[in-house]
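Deviations from the work plan: none for this task. Representative record:
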Amino acid sequence: MTALLSVDRIEKRYAVGGRGLLARLRQEKPAFLHAVDTVSFTIGRGETVGLVGESGCGKSTLVRLVTRLIDPTAGAISFDGTDTAAVPAKRFGRSPLRSRIQMVFQDAEGSLNPRFTAFDAIAAPARRLARLSAAALKARVEEVAALTGLPRELLGRFPHQLSGGQKARVGIARAIVDVSVQVVILRLLDDLKRRLGLSYLFVSHDLNVVRLLCDRVLVMYLGKIVESGPADAVFAQPAHPYTKALLSAIPSFDPGGKRNAVRLSGEPRSPIDPDPNVCRFYGRCPKGVERCATAMPALTMVTPDRQVACHFPETEPKIARSAADKALNGETLSS
Amino acid sequence: MSEVPLLAVDDLAVEFRTRSGTVRALERVGFALARGETLGIVGESGSGKSVTAFAIMGILDAAARVTAGSIVFGGLDLLTASERTLQEMRGRELAMIFQNPRAALNPIRPIGRQIEDILIRHANVLPAQARIRAIEKLAAVNIADPERRARAYPFELSGGMCQRVMIAMALACSPALLVADEPTTGLDVTTQAVIMDLVADLARREGMASLLITHDLGLAMDYCDSIAVMHAGHIVEVAPAAELFRAPRHPYTQKLIAATPRPAARLGDLAAIPGGLPDLRRDDLPPCRYSARCERRGEMCDETLPMIEIAAGHRVACQYPQ
């Protein structure tokens, strides 16, 4: 499968402090916040990849890098064979590729301009990116509105006159116009994927939703991918202790079922100038031993389709392989 | 629950007067909570969960009016009690934690000092001892290095840490009832699990009852003894957690469970709930506020809304419970 999107050793560092006059006079070196640190992954055509991790782990920065809203410090992003990292974010808005990578935001209300009607919101990207006649634009907007199940009568309404679900549809319609999570929206995303062959990078806190929608999952911790693999296999048998804690935190719908759950103590390490030789999870990890504080574990293949960055991955290769096989044979999605 | 309950809410009705009409936010809301028991109140936004919590705490908005019912806590009717009595109760007997802990803390006062204030005001702790006791309280909610953290301001702490501080403050005087309004919404799942475990553990140790207000059915299932499901200002079903999940009787509860992504579900299994909440400003609200969305709707639904006792502790407000 040729990847639609291929991200290679991408990095984003933000300078913090050390830039003021006083700091310069004292010749202080600026410190760097490593928001995204040497991350590589691919997304195949029609594939849905879930991105999970706690707030502050760099998910949003990674998404903004991939959608080219910000420039990476290092690394390459190849989208459909074109190196998009080479185009500065400022100019990417006018690039023909812009229309092919779109975002849908969590807060449907906050991402819509309150002074734009649903029609304007959906039409704006089309206006900017394609030269359509007024009639063609109207037809295109009505077509995508119908595709996302947004009634035509609602196109003249402003965001405050729409329900939450309707606003989410406008957000999605807006994203595909160029080609708290509700079931309807999930179904819609799944349906659009089938009908339009869309690929998704799906960022969510709700792991149950990620499991429902995604073929593969990437787990991030403090700027690094610590585990990746088929969603079913990762959920059935998490290999990284952080993934294990993350899955263990999902409500089980079982009264009193939380007794043997894995819980993380403490706070994440600082992302500012992290020690390159210490595992980012060290200190919160229930397994942490001396080796974890002297050698950073690299993201290593444990089975052909699973990678883990841990000196002591949990998964027995045999079990992992059978779980992964099951995931490949039985479809992840069925509706 | 044969003994006198710690908290008994009975036939509670709350209205909000707005420019565009009177919103009937709560109607015939009733439930009881025994000492040490945990009750979850679940429902979609706008169902009246938080209004119920605010009514119990006596902190309803000025536009709200309680038009019927009683809230009896430890033998005292909170609705007729004086503001002075309520102020004594809040903090000492009744405590609440909110959704956004950072906003609920004083931003310009070190957190240790904020806990000291409560201890001095409500727990008869001498100012000279307050600092040490406040540090103990921070240690009790598993904050590492409490001496140093006591000097920190809220902006210096993470969201999960702020919620721990809120819990330390709420539990400073060992209240008999803790009202937790979406305590972990906006926190990471890993932090959510740690905070929920902490509250459950402290509640068990202190014999404290708690009311967990949440939109997350799974969270309520995991941490509550019983669950009350709210819809458009009505409690439509109350049952022990396991029974509610295994054998829900109200059509809305059944839909709510079917719409929630659960560990074993597939996308095709999930069903959307048709329609939305009715406009609670309408004068002609039907007796059952779910009837317009209901597949089971029959002739009786426009007549009355009964509260049927299915089993001990399992009640359902429906003409046709299945």
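Residues 94-174 of chain B form one domain.
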